[in-house]
Hints:
Blueprint (H helix, E strand, L loop, with lengths): L2 H14 L2 H8 L3 H15 L4 E3 L4 E3 L1 H24 L8 E7 L1 H18 L3 E7 L13 E5 L8 E8 L1 E5 L1 H7 L13 E4 L7 E6 L2 E6 L4 E3 L2 H9 L4 E5 L4 H6 L3 E3 L8 E7 L7 H15 L8
Parallel strand pairs: 3-4, 3-5, 8-11, 8-12
Antiparallel strand pairs: 1-2, 5-14, 6-14, 7-12, 7-13, 9-10
Helix pairs in contact: 1-2, 1-3, 1-4, 2-3, 5-9
Amino acid sequence: MDRLHAMKTFVTVVESGGFTAAARKLDVSLSVVSRVVTELEAHLGVRLLTRTTRVVRPTETGAAYFEDCKRILGEIEEAELTATGTHSSPRGHLVVTAPVLFGARHVTPIVVEYLRRYPEVDVQCVLVDRNVNFIDEGVDVGVRIGELPSSSLQAISVGHVRRIVCAAPSYLQQQGMPQAPEDLSAHTLIQTTGVSTLPEWRFMRQGELKPLRFTPRLATSTNDSAISAAVAGLGLARVLSYQVAAELRDGTLRVVLADHEPPPVPVHVIHREGRHAMLKVRAFLDLAIDRLRGDASLNYC
């Protein structure tokens, strides 16, 4: 068995999500792909893939082996590029993920700068308000806002943001400034339902983080529309500080209940290739980390 060929075939199956798609990508028959993976599993003595009629997914062992194969194949590719003298700059296809609004405001400018620097790389941005599965969706680098669960992904801290309640000065002038979370029952509240449909905000009270249930006057699925409604003077909205950094600077919005805010939320750049990341990934990481750490709106604490 050609181990390198088997690794490449296995990685293609995982990234493609199935044997048929992998066979098309490798330009070989379905039976060849199936045989190679079966022989690889027999050689290792473990099951690498869970096969159903609808989808093929790596087992826990298979996921770890996939990461190792990706690293090894990447190192081999870089060694070959170095040997042939074509390793002067990053090249290939890079997939980057981030939350929608963060991606539009912070990641896209970095991607544009990256593409201008490295003309031999093309980038796909996956901007969604959910945690993307790096293996299933072939993602190389991502930005996550919030505490990270335990995983095999590498994480680099680039800042913190606050979860704030804000309103337009015109609204506060008419309705008054709330002094405690309990005062919000007398105010018009705007809720973003994109992440959670539960109508509650959490505040620090007597040293503990406690929920406050409410009935929103406006419930909207996007942060952009909640911010627009707050700027228009409708009521109070709760967002992450980076999302309204410009409005806070120019006075369009003001923060209320700052003394009752939850602890700051961490922002991380994450990737899956460890210290042996391919050149295209390392170059993007270096640029993204430098730009994000230098962004004042991500250290507004």
